[in-house]
Amino acid sequence: MAFKAFTQTHVYERQEAPKEKDKSSIQCLECYDRNVYIGTKHATVQHLILPSSTNGDLSSCQSKTREGRARKLGSSNPVVQLRAVPLFNHLLVLWERSITALNMFSLEPVPALKKIQHVSLFEVCDSSLTAQAECVEMVTSSSRRKVVRIHVVGVDRWEVVKEVPLPQDPVALAVDGTSLCVATCNMYLLCDIESGSSQELFPHNHNRQRVIVTSAGQGEFLLNGPESLGMFVMKTGICQRPPLQWPLEVLAAGVCFPYILTLQPQVLSVYSMLDQQRKQTVSLPGAKGLLSTPDGVLVFTERDIFSLRLVPLEEQIQALVRHKRVEEALLLLDGVQSSRPLDSYKDLQKAITCLAGFVHFYQKGFSEARDLFIKGELDPREIIHLYPDMQLCLGEDFQSRFDHENKGRDLQVFWREDRNTFHHYLAFLGDFLRAVRGTEQDLKCSMEVDCALLRLYAELGDTENLQQLLTFPNDCRLDHCVPVLEQHNRFFALGCLYQSHGKQTDAIKTWVKITDGSHKDPSCSDVYGHIVWTLSQLKDRDTVWKFADWTLQRNQEIGVQIFSKRPPDDRLETQDVLVLLEKYPLALVLYLEFLIHDLSSEEERHHNRLALAYVTQMLKEEKGADLMPTRGKLQQLLWESKFYDVSAVYERVKSTTLHTEKAILLGKTGEHSQALQVLVHQERDLRAAEAYCCRAAKGRDTEFRQSLLLTLLQIYLSSEDLTSTAVDLLNNNPRVFAAEKVIQLLPDSWSVQLVSQFLVRSIRETLHQRRMARLQKALVQAELMQHKVTWMQASKTKFVLGKEQKCKICQRDFAEPQFACNLLGELMHTSCTGFSAS
């Protein structure tokens, strides 16, 4: 059955004698509520009373239209127009170029309202706009002059209040509020009733019978434009809707939002204002004209009147959905919402939006389908249950609200025969479920959504999305998802699934099997590193201790991180860790370094243990191994730490070849001369000896460094083989050595030429220091002189303190001789200086 926007009902058939048929033919109509008025060709006004109906459907009524009173206005000439004014129970009749006022029910003339002569057209403004003022406005067109007149109509009077001149005689007009749209023989105009201004719209070439001007409501008019176009024009003169292409022989047009009805001699066409498409055609042989009513139109022929009532919008939308025209249903629903709110608009909109989404879904328009499903808040299970493999994710109590019997078979065919196409549908499923996951659509079925996503990622081999799903909290069912992951060899993801559900031991056991080779899963390249990180963050300490040995046995350097990388508020007992690490020397060293360098431990036992561990490590390393990093760490610890037992460490190294370390320990006890002897004669590293002097003197005064270098110089001088080294030491440190002390130490056999370079640099440095001291003293004296001059200038300034002198701050008199003065010379109490500064 075709879609219907309007239902047709035969309202009335005029019964007349054969001789009276031509005279009694209907010329015009007017309608208010159940009252219909007929104007005939032979000057008669007939009152009809439509049957009452609770739902507005005339076709369902058992009673028929009743004829009320009739009034004969004269012997001839047709009635041109009828307009009801319900505010005063007036019926205005245009006949023989004059307007007569009748009572709407008795059809008797209103005695107080005399005829308005010489009128060719008239319209009554909407009485609801002026009801409070107890009057209505009426617009009339003069049959003698090129003007329109504005009348104020009351219960017992009417009078002209304004005239608006026109360039040509009007042939049709319509009123909407204060806006008047007029058609002349070749032009459409807009006039403002209040200001009297007019504006030309566009020309036309229609004859008088084809000119159409009708109000579309809300300041908009519908006009018969050129080239058979129905033009919508706002009262501002602009078009906000696209034009409507309608037939050539249009007799009349009416607007019943959201439709336009156009009348031709044999047919009435219904067009949508939303997409400008024809929606319905009604056969009406002999139709002459139509009258817009609040819920449709009345169409009349010579003898008959037909009612076309708007089908309730909910029924229209449901009919479109039944005809699989969901896009039109959505368009209609969105278009009428602003002007006609529906009680069930939201639910209806969601359902139709989802149906439109399914249309795109089965046509592989996945992007549009996803957007429509989200907009329509579709239950994700409706999509999941379409996929053969995914139906296991749904509970037994789920029942689909949509009929997918035939389309669902298509997916099963793709699943069996066309895996490439089915892969695209799987990709859409993942895209849609990711989009709705965590939203309100997901609240009622989060378990089904997560299970479907896990199964989908496992089948597609989508490692990244699978890990992202399982790394964070999820609602996957273990009894369903564990077999799926095992089936696809996703053992690392299986561990993540256990972990996300709080089963930490099961998770680590699963990962351990991957590391040991029991399970094969190439999806993660560093499972061991992940185990270590997990244990380092785990609050379950029993599980940490349970896997600690396995972790350290596999790799001490990385495994120790289960203790050193823990959160600051969840560290394990230090002594317990040290006891465990006794079996793992490298891990022990790394943990002690963590305690000292990262946690800034000041416990002597930690520092002693680390130093001795370094020594043990140095002595156990095989020849050829790179010992420099470890030795560097040992020396740095010996130099910088203040918390180890020097004697204990010295006892451990004194019988070894670690001479540099022995020197550092001797220096810690103040035995610098002995330390330098070790470096020069045992280690035979002269650079180390000089570096020792610099390092030992760090943070001390110049005299201490000078004494160390003098001691080293004496050691060099005591050996004939180190003469050149002694000279180099002097030449490299001319600023440190005092020339007079060095000369006393030099052997008598040394010539002046041998130490000339040192002497020249030393004397030059001494002179430079003296000159710099004099210059600095002179600068300080100059600055002092400037301060004295400023003070002298300020002390010579005079201030006059009179009797009427007031404080600048508190405006009170000075009662004491003490006062203060600011830079501007303003006087104030000494107690007010604090307020001035603030």
TrEMBL record:
GO terms for cellular component: cytoplasm; membrane. The keyword Nuclease does not apply. Coiled coil: none annotated. InterPro entries: Clathrin_H-chain/VPS_repeat, CNH_dom, Vam6/VPS39/TRAP1, VPS39/TGF_beta_rcpt-assoc_1. GO terms for biological process: autophagy; endosomal vesicle fusion; intracellular protein transport. Residues 23-297 form the CNH domain. Keywords: Receptor. CHCR repeats lie at residues 562-721. This is Transforming growth factor-beta receptor-associated protein 1-like protein. It comes from Lates japonicus.
